[in-house]
């Protein structure tokens, strides 16, 4: 069986071991005579799956007792609306603008709440993460919103800003589970599953208890955190197969040694690629050093019109989806948890060969 190295930003590659486990269990899950896809979401077997998934995520991320884990649908994009609808009290929120996804979050939130952009890196094409000082935060803001990893631009917060008593809300779609984080610094964490957790269709929300139960009157039932927290994410039919796949991925992460080990692996992969780009006078990184993502790594070939050749020739060698996002150009290697170090080594070998040919 031929598997490529898939550098897609999302949906992205899944660990082969997880796919094989799902394949083995597909037609007859635990002697039920059914696939997980065919199980009632109220059945004992599915209850076990969703309970295990939650407990594993709690264990991996060290999620404190006073936080709920919700498995919902609608993607991170739906949380752009759900966050203001659930957290609105004074009617104001602070946003940090670090790229395309932050902008979309702000645009959606403006329909429901007064949005203040307290910092932005748009002046330099989002190639860095702006410094956030406590004094920039509005004391009467209902929350502060950040995008911890900017999937398109390839930047990431290397330190979590201190927002004092104002709840910090984070879109962690492209770096959840990639490194150890202190959940207690956040009011809400949300992430679409299709980068580091599993297939598209599942969204994970981690929310502090005191931020549940005070949603605005117009908040649709399905967007209310309380709806999902009081029903154990079983108010309606959850994306059952997505939850099952997430559970398998969580088990895989745990077997590897948890987030500490995953982080070490991710840092090593990113360092290999950045070091190679750094020492080369053919390739360059558009991102400022102290703001670099370890998940999404854009690189360019300055002064040459070689991007489409690069992408095409790489693809012929089993290195897939390296084209940069249409808004920034160049190339982008997304190296999420499931990407093995060999994938990055093969990419670097190809980059060396391509450089020799075109220099
Ligand atoms: C992929 C992504 C999104 C969009 O997620 P959907 O689940 O497709 O809505 C939002 N924010 C970030 C940071 C992303 O990487």
Count of alpha and pi helical runs: 9
Distance between the termini: 35 Å
Q: How many DSSP E strands? A: 13
Query: Could you say what the CATH topology of the largest domain is called?
Result: Aspartate Aminotransferase, domain 2
CATH architecture of the largest domain: 3-Layer(aba) Sandwich
Distinct small molecules bound, one entry per kind: pyridoxal-5'-phosphate
In CATH terms, the superfamily of the largest domain is Type I PLP-dependent aspartate aminotransferase-like (Major domain)
> In CATH's first tier, which class of the largest domain applies?
Alpha Beta
Q: How would a textbook summarize the main sheet?
A: 7 strands, mixed
Radius of gyration: 21 Å
Measured by DSSP, the beta-strand proportion falls in 15-25%
Q: Strand order, biggest sheet? A: 2-10-9-8-5-3-4
Q: Which sequence of SSEs, written as H and E, runs from N to C?
A: EHHEHEHEEEEEEEHHHEHEEH
Structural class of the secondary structure composition?
A: alpha/beta
User: For the residues shown, what is the average pLDDT?
Assistant: 97
Query: Per the principal axes of the C-alpha atoms, what is the gross shape?
Result: globular
Q: How much helicity do the residues have? A: 25-40%
Uncertain runs: none
Number of domains: 2
């Amino acid at each position: 069986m031929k598997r490529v190295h898939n550098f897609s930003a999302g949906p992205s590659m899944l660990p082969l071991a997880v796919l094989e486990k799902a394949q083995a269990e597909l037609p007859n899950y635990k002697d039920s005579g059914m696939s997980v896809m065919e199980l009632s979401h109220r059945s004992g077997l599915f209850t076990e799956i969703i309970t295990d998934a939650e407990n594993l995520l709690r264990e991996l991320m060290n999620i404190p007792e006073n936080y709920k884990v919700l498995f919902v649908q609608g993607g991170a994009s739906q949380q752009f609306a759900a966050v203001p609808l659930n957290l609105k009290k004074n009617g104001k929120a602070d946003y940090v603008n670090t790229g395309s996804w932050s902008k979309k979050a702000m645009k959606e939130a403006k329909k429901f709440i007064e949005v203040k952009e307290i910092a932005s890196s748009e002046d330099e094409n989002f190639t860095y993460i702006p410094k956030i000082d406590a004094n920039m935060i509005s004391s009467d803001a209902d929350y502060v919103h950040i995008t911890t990893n900017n999937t398109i631009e390839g930047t990431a917060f290397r330190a979590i800003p201190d927002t004092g008593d104002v709840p910090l809300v984070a879109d962690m779609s492209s770096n959840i589970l990639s490194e150890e984080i202190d959940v207690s610094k956040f009011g809400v964490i949300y992430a679409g599953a299709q980068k580091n957790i599993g297939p598209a269709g599942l969204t994970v929300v981690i929310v502090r208890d005191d931020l549940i139960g005070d949603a605005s009157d117009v908040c649709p039932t399905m967007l209310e955190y309380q709806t999902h927290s009081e029903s154990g994410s079983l108010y309606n039919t959850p994306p059952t197969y997505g939850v099952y796949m997430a559970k398998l991925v969580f088990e895989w992460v745990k077997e590897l040694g948890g987030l500490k080990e995953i982080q070490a692996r991710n840092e090593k992969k990113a360092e290999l690629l950045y070091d190679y780009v750094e020492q080369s006078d053919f390739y360059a990184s558009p991102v400022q050093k102290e703001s670099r993502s370890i998940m999404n790594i854009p690189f360019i070939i300055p002064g040459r019109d070689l991007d489409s050749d690069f992408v095409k020739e790489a693809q012929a060698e089993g290195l897939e989806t390296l084209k940069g996002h249409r808004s920034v150009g160049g190339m982008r290697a997304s190296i999420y948890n499931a990407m093995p170090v060999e994938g990055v080594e093969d990419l670097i070998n190809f980059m060396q060969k391509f450089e020799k040919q075109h220099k």
